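Hello,

I think I submitted the PBG job twice by accident. Can you confirm which output corresponds to this input? Input:
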Amino acid sequence: MFPEYRPRRLRKNSSFRALIRETQLSPAQFIYPLFVMPGKNKREEIPSMPGVFRLTVDQLAGEARECLQLGVNSVILFGLPEKKDGMGSGAHAKNGIIQTAIRELKAKVPEMLVITDVCLCEYTDHGHCGCLIDNVVDNDATLEILAKTALSHAQAGADMVAPSDMMDGRIAEIRAALDENNFESIPIMSYAVKYASAFYGPFREAADCAPQSGDRKSYQMDPANSREALREATLDVDEGADILMVKPAVAYLDIIARLRDEFDLPIAAYHVSGEYAMIKAAAEKGWIDGDRVMEETLLSIKRAGADIIITYFAKDMAKILKDRK
Ligand code: PBG
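Support: Only one job matched these inputs. Its output is below.
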């Protein structure tokens, strides 16, 4: 009790504060998303995500080397295919945009950990994460395509696959496809708890994957639900997931904390495009200090219990941490 106990004693100077700091950000635990597009020698800035670019395949190695120099050792790839169709067949094409990007990265920068997003929404002409049968996203028909997609990524050299489609049963299906083809050592990072969120808006512009009709509420989770997150995560653990992801991050810190308490697998959080865009926009207007809000936000995700943070801020934050040393 005061006056015997005075919490301010240990806040007196920066050394004391550093001594008792409970949470640290580490660039080695950031994953930086990369958007890959067709063409040559091009970088296109995404209007609603300042500082984030769509890159042609030849630009990837340079970007990856820059990440490595900052201590960011992992990237997750998203593709903009040349053509889309009803079944999303570009997602598993041997020479598809992602398969080509993986081969390029693993050939030129082999030490970079290459993770792939496994989903169909960037590859279907209707923009849904699965195939449509009678205008409904058909769960079981989609599983086979997802498994083929994950396998094609592994065959191209991906280090880990990350299914984001939210179909039921996809982790088991993908695990089986990988194991049957001697990829039993490739881990699965499951987007286990993914909400139907408006925070994905800028990403859908970046990856050109907005649904052309309807929404994703029949497969992504209702933002109002928390117990359901535990059921989703339990299913994925039982089906063989190696890492559990919560997405988005900041509006769902309670979910991250709940998963941290309930499961012993590594937990990842996806600090998504809209969360990035809001900070960038307010900082551009001069309404907040962008760098400090970035750091505070990433710390909050860590503090809630995430081990891994997927974030468009990975390079910016890593630079600040490096300069501070
Ligand atoms: C693909 C996918 C999405 C995101 C990651 N993978 C979009 C969506 O589900 O609509 C969003 C990432 C972000 O907003 O940064 N299904």
